[in-house]
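seq:
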Amino acid sequence: MTYLARFELKCLSSSTTNTTSFIKPSTLPTVKPLPINGHHPWHPSHHSRFLTISKISAPKFPKIYTKSTLVLCKASVSETHSSESVSGPDGTGAAAPTRGQKFLEHQLSLEAMTEKKAETKKKKKMMKKEKVLKFSMAVATCYGCGAPLQTLDSDAAGYVDIETYELKKKHHQLRTILCGRCRLLSHGHMITAVGGNGGYSGGKQFVTAEQLREKLSHLRYEKALIVKLVDIVDFNGSFLARVRDLAGANPIILVVTKVDLLPKGTDFNCVGDWVVEATTKKKLNVLSVHLTSSKSLVGIVGVASEIQKEKKGRDVYILGSANVGKSAFISALLKMIGQKDPVAAAAQKYKPIQSAVPGTTLGPIQINAFLGGGKLYDTPGVHLHHRQAAVVHSEDLPVLAPQSRLRGHSFPNSKVASDNGTASEVQSNDLNGFSIFWGGLVRIDILKVLPETCLTFYGPKALQIHMVPTDEADEFYQKEIGVLLTPPTGKERADDWRGLETERQLRIPYEDVKRPACDVAVSGLGWISIEPVSRSIRQSDSDSDLNLKDKAGELHLTVHVPKPVEVFVRPPLPVGKVGAEWYQYRELTDKEEEVRPKWFF
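struct:
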């Protein structure tokens, strides 16, 4: 292959005639680029690229004048050298890449670089979050509530006197310190610490509910096993509807707490099936469901066994809404695991504090509970603004937590309170035209029901239930709020009470009068079972009468609650001895049976 090279020679001549000669490439001297007019010879402003020969092997002549002369040279290059240095790997001629192909390759390389930058940015973000988490866990905290230890504010969480702090620090025992607030909580004092949306009125507020939720945001990026707790008395209100925002794709063991509070004679086979049905509709990655009681240790063995089986070296996080019983559950879990694991047995000495105050735990508490690796973490409760605990005063919070087994209070088998506060017997079983007050927190107006319809209330015994004619309900509420209708307790708190601002109209269909139509669950309080025909009336009626009443219909109610509180209409929870009589198990397909989580008790 032949190429032409252009050179600029400074030719020396004594005549006006320019000499042009052809030089072989092998005899050319060493060349180097020189600037032309202050620019590099390859500067875009030059259309022709020139090389200047610095040395020429020629005799020296007297310098008369100089003039640039164009020299054309022929050069032969071997085919092998040409194919490697000129054509490149893409070939030449018809095999050479087109402009479109080059543009496409350029775009693909840009996309690859963009994806690599995004992946690098994501990794840096993950490393930053892990660094923040490790730093937060490195700070000394109170083993009772997880608050960082401090010696400045005696009224704030995490406070410890300076002498104790320095002494424990000297002996490397900061993890064995219980802060002043936890000591008061352990003696029954009601000291709230959470404010903001979902927080609690009254007392000091050191942290907002949003800040506590932010402390759990790293969970979705962790490889962890989530043990999620739900209160059976407040199943819908404590379930955490957006739990996937916290847990991510991590597997979940669902633990239902406080089953020992259900009415006597309850068939837990029915309750377990009911919980699994409700959980399946949430479409979560639930491995198993466990019915437990931290007080009687019922079901704790099954949870401990499931955790040991599924943790696989991962950390275990106890997650749940505020006051659902996380600290009590951890205490029971450590007691059960400690029978075979010496590490868990030693951890029982410094376990999280238990209290009736929502928001007792203010930070993640690391617990060495497993001999084979992995940590157990007690996490701050998720504070939900739609629960009754978010609207009552902090000193009224204990009345919302049932302390003993629930007993249903049915109406119309009760007394009716008149507008002057006295009581008189209901002359008729018909509830139409009456309003029922559940403490000062709930009012139910009965608009259209069957004469035999019965409402049964399941919730804290401290909340008294009163029934008055609907046309007298407003006056009765204004007169008795804070006195007969509590909480709020006392006239001072009643004056600040905003009342029952939310009103929800319910149309409840029913198809079978032999079973409850539904439950009306009030978030953070309990539930009301709605029976189209009372069980006592069904037992006294003859079969012919029941056949006449065994037809579809609709019940109309109005429920009044404080503004942020939510009301749920759900399938009836089978409780008591009668629950097993009317509860119906749904027939499952083979595919449903395979993916459906198993429940244990």
